[in-house]
Amino acid sequence: MPKRxxxxxxxxxxxxxxxxxxACEFDYSGTQACRVLRDxxxxxxxxxxxxxxxxxxxxxxxxxxxxxxxxEYVEKVIAAERPDxxxxxxxxxxALNTAIxxxxxxxxxxxxxxxxxxxxxxxxxGENREIFKRIVEGLPAEWGAEVARSVICHTMAECEAGVDExxxxxxxxxxxxxxxxxxxxxxxxxxxxxRIAGSGLALSPTTEVLLEESILGWKEYELEVMxxxxxxxxxxxxxxxxxxxxxxxxxxxxxxxxxxxxxxxYQRLRDxxxxxxxxxxxxxxxxxxxxxxxxxxxxxxxxxxxxxxSRSSALASKATGFPIAKIAAKVAIxxxxxxxxxxxxxxxxxxFEPTLDYVVVKVPRFAFxxxxxxxxxxxxxxxxxGEAMAIGRNFTxxxxxxxxxxxxxxxxxxxxxxxxELDKEDLLxxxxxxxxxxxxxxxxxxxxxxxxxxxxxxxxxxxxxxxQLALLNEVAAELIAADRLTPELLRHAKRHGFSDAQxxxxxxxxxxxxxxxRQSLGVRPVFKTVDTCAAEFAAKTPYHYSxxxxxxxxxxxxxxxxxxxxxxxxxxxxxxxxxxxxxxxxLALSDAGYETIMVNCNPETVSTDYDTSDRLYFEPLxxxxxxxxxxxxxxxxPVAGVIVQLGGxxxxxxxxxxxxxGVPIVGTQPEAIDLAExxxxxxxxxxxxxxxAPKHGMATTFEGAKRIADEIGYPVLxxxxxxxxxxxxxxxxxxxSLSTYIQNATEVSHDRPVLVDRFLDDAVEIDVxxxxxxxxxxxxxxxxxxxxxxVHSGDSACALPPITLGRLEIERIRESTEAIARGVGxxxxxxxxxxxxxxxxxxxxANPRASxxxxxxSKATATPLAKAAARLMLGESIADLxxxxxxxANGDGGHLRENAPIAVKEAVMPFNRFRTFEGRYVDTLLGxxxxxxxEVMGFDSTFGSAFAKSQSAAGSATGxxxxxxxxxxxxxxxxxxMVFPVKRLADLGFEILATSGTAEVLGRNGVKxxxxxxxxxxxxxxxxxxxxxxxxxxxxxxxxxxxLSSGVNARTDGYEIxxxxxxxxxPCITTVQGLAAAVQGIEAEIAGSLGVRSLxxxxxxxxx
Length: 1104
Hints:
- Helices cover 37% and strands 19% of the residues.
- The protein has an eight-stranded mixed sheet, sandwiched between helices. It has a seven-stranded antiparallel sheet with strand order 32-31-28-29-30-33-34.
């Protein structure tokens, strides 16, 4: 069936900010869909609030709306653009829930818009647990498909009765219409039920939870399925979870294809999947179906289906080379699978099911170090912030490659020559609780003499996987026992994924020595191709992985190549913003005539799409693996150099090693990068340029740190050297806190000193992104932070153009930026953070690389900074780029036109994902350590409107109220600054509630406030604010802590208030600057002046 002729324009709904459970895999799928639909001649309208993704760049859609993904705003976009259809299956649960809300509100009918990809009926069937249960029960009996016995509940009383009906505890609690297992969990007793079901009912948009019989310990599988209107169905990929049921699939190590199914079991799962997709009625796209199989008797339970492209779809796409999102978009506009060509072979259609002749392993990456109070136990509630994927010829090779792709020294298996005493029983007991790093305990238990059956009993990890771990132990034992490293032994170890570093540790040698021996013996990897068909047809797309096999499949080339090193797995502090810069570099250098080569291991991103670069290597970003890719490419043709400055800290950490190995680094050199990081040398650059920095010192002991702090004066900012995302930073207000910090600091040594800086209280923090070519500076943008200095720049909201800085200050910033760029030796991008305090401009830090704000600045100023940077690195000048039209012909981001819109970036926090052991949420205080997982952008003609949009886009817990009650409790130092904004709220009709001290100050200033008692005050005098919050009788909370130190000096009252706000989803502002901005946003909301406008429309107006 050819393409539908009745669809000329499609609105694609994106997935919004990166949050745990819904990460950049949806940006990858949405970007793919936008490209395909435009190629088909369809006008694409996109709505997505996330500035960090390349999807919201103006070139990927005809009209790009960076607006909140809420039914109200999406309706405004529909009214302005009048699309023929909406595609909501590529934006995760956010897009799906928005589409359902629009349908229920009658908006789709009102504007005559059709929902394509999956009908409302199909979404209902897939998402509504009761209907889905009936569908599975109606499948042919011989397939043996069941659903877990369950009851649907809308109240706590129904939940309690439901437990009895299911035969007692444990039970699984699953809220309806949430994503990433949000609000779900395992209740082992009545107390657990009250906690988990209570929060589940609150999180579900339909106040509905499902209680299911526990299938803990069963094996978990997923199938990715696609179907078209002609009822062609293909199974794209089978995925097996190494962890058994009870761990969310996003937090589990997963393997593709499934390795422990018999053919009979696989065929049954296949039949059930095809039956389910037909009955649910998904006839224009992909879906993901999850199964549990009882290892005792083979009983199959269908857990759920997602009638949309899911997290696993990205993994299945990268694992097979089958572009699910691209094909889903084509199927949605009427094509059938047999009419769509497979890009990789160019001769088979998409109705050919992919065949794998390799093994893929995905490993999650966690961020528990950011939330020390959080419970690290893995449950059905997803907690990982990113993932790495690796491809190998067997499971052991793929697993070891995936573990080293995580870039955590404690993630990889370690063996050493010394004998270590291990306690088998203790190891098995600790391994029985799922947590990050459990696999290492299993490995130690095997070394301690545990059998595969004992490990299975403790962990329910399939004995086949346990046997593979035992095999790795055997190989390690051979390496320990061998007299010398022979080519045969090395090749044997390498085929099981052992790195040079691991072999070195086993043999008592350095990694460099092992590498030298290995290469001199001629033991090097070859590169194989992901081709979707197990080499039945020739592959036309160079998508490679390494293996210690016989023949390489890399073709020779003639054009000079540039290797771009990606950013590896997402984590807090290094997210998709860096992938954005890498993709832009690839597109820009391709246009400039280079062959572009991407090296990365993150399956969620656009950079690892097989058609983003000329060649893709899906490899770990370690020195060993990257050097082998460079070697292979040097043999294939000329190499112009390697780009390490765009992927964040990961490739920067490899720069010195690559240069030492003789690899050409383009752009800013490793010495310059080190100079900016090294305090003494950077201080010299500042001194020569006559620029002040806050007083600072370096210490390796508490005595040293105390001496510096006494000299500088408290408060001081303490942090380890060389960090990204403010890891381990803290503001310390007194000697006692300093002592605690030094005691708790993980690695304080002569090589890793602690930095102690004067902390600038009440300073305005400023972020600058700029380009420098050695002669001329191009100021990309000057961002003013809304929160004061001391809140990490990644967590602070910021505005561009700056809202309180004049031309004079911007000129000072320009001169300082140029002096630093010249002094450091930058060729490409530089990011500098300044603090303006008492009219003095202090330099806080400089990073001669792409920063996380590059995508935001690029969109706010309509200038492709990352593209320009890539070309500067390869020798072009800013004047050349102005002439080529890459940069504006005159002016830069320092002086935007008067009619330029205001962009506000707001961080999105994952606090609702992390709870303490007692089940309480973690504190929401912002500090110098970064905790946000993503960001959104508000874009409008005034600051108030843009700020209001950014709050709506960041989620329900930050949307600003327009009426109701506001609770105020601020620290003494903030009381003077809060009077005017609170008075304005009272004038706008809000009822003010306050604690006694705050109420007294407000009363003196003519603001009437109802006094609420503090938690520790006498219990007879009225209710506390926490009770009011739990009754949802407060709409906005303003609570600034006593001392910003993360938890050390903040009183219990504040903690109780803020965690209650997270639990109930009520916006909570923790800084006075945030309060002033919120008041402007509330004024804009009340005035009702918030419209929508595309980036393309803004750009046209500003350029007039």
